[in-house]
Specification:
heterodimer; A: alpha/beta; Hypothetical Protein Ychn, Chain: A; 3 helices; 5 strands; about 25% helix; B: Hypothetical Protein Ychn, Chain: A; five-stranded parallel beta sheet; about 30% helix
């Protein structure tokens, strides 16, 4: 399952709710304001992902638009562009938008 | 026939998107698709009986929920964990629902053709 999140953890419970449901092999894609949750800060619920088998993806155009640097993000985060976004959708058994 | 899961994870009040979302589900059912309505997180509050939202000028969604079977939407599921976390039980709900644990719902969603949320 691929979960798509578009709001930051400070604005919405969507990321927290999705982390409760995600399991091995699942992916979480952060787009729009959700890219802020990729920043390596204590407040981000992505700390919970550290030793799980969930893959976190971030949409780079949305990151760059907000001036976020990869260096400031969690090291386990993977980066995708629009082509990668489409590829993720193609490869996922189910896609859930958590808006 | 496709299996479409419509996920309601927010309360139904005070949001124009809600009505449109339910309309989508009804329309899909009218076109003979298998529609599963899934309530989770704060969406489960929508199922509570004795609502009188007209007092604050909003529309009551309970009659609509009761009409779902007319549209042949017979799969109304609720995530068990969401009910328990909120101290609710299914006797308080306006319609009969199927309580499903989170892991089972995940399997069903993986098997469905499309997932919709709002």
């Amino acid at each position: 399952m691929l979960y798509i999140i578009n709001k930051s953890h400070a604005d919405s419970q969507a990321l927290n709710n999705c982390l409760q449901r995600a399991s091995r092999g699942d992916g979480i894609l952060l787009i729009e304001h959700a890219v802020y949750s990729a920043l390596n800060v204590k407040q981000s619920p992505l700390h919970l992902v550290l030793d799980s088998e969930v893959t976190v993806y971030v949409l780079t155009p949305d990151m760059q638009a907000r001036g976020l640097q990869e260096l400031a993000c969690f090291s386990f985060v993977e980066y995708v562009d629009y082509t990668g976004f489409v590829g993720l959708i193609e490869d996922s058994s189910a896609v859930r938008s958590c808006f | 026939m496709k299996t479409l899961v419509f996920i309601i994870d927010k309360p139904l009040h005070g949001n124009i998107q809600t009505q449109e979302f339910i309309d989508m589900a009804l329309m899909a059912a009218a076109f003979d698709q298998r529609v599963i309505l899934l309530f989770e997180d704060d969406g489960v509050y929508a199922l509570l009986g004795k609502q009188s939202p007209d007092a604050i000028g909003l529309k009551n969604s309970s009659p609509l929920l009761k009409a779902l079977s007319i549209y042949e939407i017979n799969d109304v599921w609720v995530e068990q964990e969401s009910i328990i976390e909120r101290g609710l039980n299914s006797e308080q709900f306006v319609i009969d629902v199927k309580r499903c644990p989170r892991v089972e719902l995940k399997r069903e969603m993986e098997a469905a053709d499309e997932l919709f949320s709002f």
